[in-house]
Amino acid sequence: MWTRPAPLAATAAALRSNQLDLAASINEACDRIDAAEPSVQALLPEPQRRARLLAEAQTLQAQWPDPAARPPLYGILLGVKDMFRVTGFPTRAGSQLPSELFAGPEAACVSRLRAAGALVLGKTVSAEFAYFEPGPTRNPHNIEHTPGGSSSGSAAAVAAGFCSLALGTQTIGSVLRPAAFCGLVGFKPTFGRISTAGLIPCAASFDHVGFFTQDMPGTKLVSSLLCEGWQPDQTQAPATLPVLGVPEGPYLAQASPEALALFEEQLALLAAAGYRVRRVPALADIETINRRHLQLVFAEMAQVHAEWFARYETLYRPRTAAAIRNGQSVTSAEQNAARAGRAQLRTDLLALMAQYDIDLWVCPAAPGPAPDGIAATGSPLMNLPWTHAGLPAVTFPAGHAANGLPLGLQCVGALLVDEYLLAYALLIAQVYVDRL
């Protein structure tokens, strides 16, 4: 096991106040990388990483000598999925295509985090073009298992304690699934609430910028920096506990018997803690939703890659190439129908929340624990409908499978209520602390 504690909120507070020396923190992280990275393989190689970070730390210290004036992420190490442009780093999008194709201004979210004091640890491994062809990254909890994808390197880097924060993307389930597999907090906001400027797109209608931490307070801190129109007055949960909706039916049946059994235990603990749990028939047409989502993802991938694929088809890996070829056959009428279906799903889910007075949906974050091997990244089907609808979702550790690997609980909020979602999730996560 290569996991190590690296809570973001506490680390940031200690760095700002000089309780934790910045240079010592960087050297400790680099020592950790030297020891664990040959097994975990979460990062893209950088021969002079330590020297660069120490030099950047000196510049940061000179810029912010007064602890009281330091920005909120002063000295926090940041992993960045290799789908984002970062000044000073090549972008390959997990592919073998020439990096010059992806050159451009730094991603807006990276620039925001740097302005808040974060230091870029480096690029993290991504599945090819954020789809299903994985890189070499392994799960720090057990290196014989996948960390999930496509944000595999970001999840593994945070779980291994290389950094306290890492950026990822989710087009189907590429933040919430690896977060669950790696025992992390993973958050994807309402669609569009974090800018995708500077991101190499997978499918623009569904691409969400999200991120990984080890702690809910850290997730709230970063959300306040990245989410457009953040409302601080909405970050304190109301005095009454939220009503939780369980989407009963074929959607839940996609999870494994083990995951469903643990989910029932999780629900029992919530009920015992005073939460009202309501079982609501929902997502009866989940197979149609799944097909519609993939059809539109394929179509948009084909559009993104039209010129690149025409020139470099032989450099694409098989699953990515197959997705693009499938997308080339999707008609404009089919795309329009899929987008209309997506809008209807969002309307239906919000209507059910209003009808049953539900504050949050709760459900398993993945069909089960991380699968064996690294040839595949696991199923994203438990995340897909929420991504399809563009609703905000967060997952956090809530138990372990029989093999000892983490399992997460996924909470989903209504449109544009990300602040309340995270405030509620912080409370709900406390129910499971003693089980971790």
Structural account:
By secondary structure, the protein is of the alpha/beta class. Helix content is 39%, strand content 14%. The chain has a 10-stranded mixed β-sheet with strand order 2-1-3-5-4-9-10-8-6-7, with helices on both faces. A hairpin with a 5-residue loop joins strand 9 (393-400) and strand 10 (406-412). The two termini are 15 Å apart. The mean pLDDT is 97.
List the helices and strands and how they pair.
Blueprint lengths: L7 H9 L5 H19 L8 H15 L13 E5 L26 H8 L3 E6 L27 H8 L5 E6 L5 H6 L3 E4 L19 E6 L2 H11 L16 E6 L8 H16 L3 E6 L4 H19 L1 H7 L5 H11 L3 H24 L4 E5 L19 H6 L3 E8 L5 E7 L5 H13 L6
Parallel strand pairs: 1-2, 1-3, 6-7, 6-8
Antiparallel strand pairs: 3-5, 4-5, 4-9, 8-10, 9-10
Helix pairs in contact: 2-3, 7-14, 9-10, 9-11, 9-12
Name the features.
single chain, 436 residues, ten-stranded mixed beta sheet, 39% helix, globular
